[in-house]
Amino acid sequence: MRLQKIGFIGLGLIGGSIAKRLRILHKDLVIIATAGHAATIEAAYKEGLTDNASPCELSDFYDCDYIFLCTPVQKNMEYLRLLKGHVCDRCIITDVGSVKTLVALLCMLIALDNDTQACLMAPTEILATQHFETIYKLASPLGINIKLLTGSTGKAERDIIHRQLRDGSLHILIGTHAVIEDNVQFRNLGFVVIDEQHRFGVAQRARLWAKNRIAPHVLVMTATPIPRTLAMTIYGDLSVSVIDELPPGRKPVTTLLRYDDNRMKVYQAIGRQLKEGRQAYIVYPLIKENEKLDLRCLEEGYELIKETFPQYKVCYVHGKMKPSEKDYQMNLFASGHAQILVATTVIEVGVNVPNASVMLIENAERFGLSQLHQLRGRVGRGADQSYCILMSHHKITKETRRRLEIMTSTTDGFVIAEADLKMRGPGDIEGTMQSGMPLELHIANLATDGQIVQLARDTAIEILDHDPEISSHENAILRTELAMANSNIIDWSRIS
């Protein structure tokens, strides 16, 4: 279908960015829009982004080929109902929710407008595929060439991707670790997105950084910064933007700590959720029983769960399964044909099932804060109240109990990362160590003296604002000390 007319409901940052890109690529395309403020449409008209100078009536959208809903989620639902009687059968309507994927896409569009390419790397094939489907849906109508590269991509498709990357006709590449292979060469890589950055090592991210003569801009995304990442934020090597609001209609996940003697009550609570039509995850630390470790395992747990909930379909997934079998089991759960998914931490990222309202984590004391927070993030994706239940033994160390109590007290990823920093240390800023205490600071301790470090950072910024080259007489001592301190330092700031 050749696009002739595009409509926008809302024309703020998101809608305006998409409209601008469309106008660049298709100058003869008719673009109409409506917005809450007439001034917004008037400004867009003066920029040449729309063909109407005042907000359109809904009836004006009748012959649109494509309509973008660019308002808050609740408003989008309202407009969707109103549009039903005003659009033709062939019209495609899509919404652009306020999620991190969209933030990444908008940055990519800016990169493309500056004649560079963009790349997004995700840690799993499932997550990479989800990003590809979301971005393709939004960006392909704009004439943007987007490809997916993973370990399972066939040779013929790989050859096409490699050729188009080199000649510049491939604009956005989305993939797993496959994108950092030596034979993946870009014509001009300008922007890199690394999702779930805590799942990648510094050296891996550096390989993307080195794929252009001029280092690309880098956006790293995570729900829970690891201690090293938070330490780099404090130091000033990373600039941070935080999305800390839930989408409209979503509720914070309720996190509960329960012990083995509460197991039957926990199962009863899960049963009530299943009876209401919800779904549940049950996560185990091991696949098979280990004689050396007194831990619950997936194989035994799968049989127990089937016996406990005989009226419900139970599926399972773990890291040692073949990709095809893993996809089959995941699709059973995602489609609603299975009500319970028994799994290992393979589901930590890339799983989106809005109907799932319960996450039960067995032997929660064996997991780190970052991992627990990531697992908790698999629920709470719909409008229903969701629950994360941490199962543990009574006999755990004081530090372990404190870690679990932190999880029950907050859902804020940065608060959790701060606690993790205090408990585990900042890690190696210049290397691969993600936690621990390799740095012996003479004055401050990153775990306890964050305010002092912040003051030092602010002072450094003030000095650089007034004396960027540090060439003034009063900064002579500072210049000498910096030269000595930086003689053997690798700058990882753009990729970590």
What does this structure look like?
The longest helix is centred in the C-terminal third of the chain and has 17 residues, at 450-466. 38% of the residues lie in helices and 15% in strands. It folds into 3 domains: 5-95, NAD(P)-binding Rossmann-like Domain (Rossmann fold, 3-Layer(aba) Sandwich), CATH 3.40.50.720; 100-222, Rossmann fold (3-Layer(aba) Sandwich); 254-411, Rossmann fold (3-Layer(aba) Sandwich), CATH 3.40.50. The strands form 3 sheets. The protein has a 6-stranded parallel sheet, sandwiched between helices. The chain is globular, with a radius of gyration of 25 Å. It is α/β, with parallel strands linked by helices. It has helices at 13-25, 38-47, 73-83, 100-113, 125-139, 155-167, 202-209, 227-235, 263-275, 298-308, 323-334, 369-376, 398-409, 413-424, 450-466, 476-485; strands at residues 5-9, 30-34, 66-69, 92-95, 117-121, 146-149, 172-175, 189-195, 217-221, 254-259, 279-283, 314-317, 340-343, 356-361, 387-392.
| Structural class computed from helices and strand pairing | alpha/beta
Hey, roughly how much beta strand do the residues contain?
A: 5-15%
CA radius of gyration: 25 Å
Number of spatially distinct domains = 3
N/C terminus separation: 42 Å
Instruction: Please give the order of strands in the largest beta sheet.
Output: 10-15-14-11-13-12
Unreliably modeled segments? 228-235, 426-439
Look at the structure and name the CATH superfamily of the largest domain: P-loop containing nucleotide triphosphate hydrolases
- Estimate the global geometry from the Cα principal axes: globular
Count of individual helical segments: 16
The CATH topology name of the largest domain reads: Rossmann fold
Give the integer mean of the pLDDT values: 81
Helix content range: 25-40%
**CATH class designation of the largest domain:** Alpha Beta
Level-2 CATH architecture of the largest domain: 3-Layer(aba) Sandwich
Largest sheet: 6 strands, parallel
Q: How many beta strands in the DSSP annotation?
A: 15
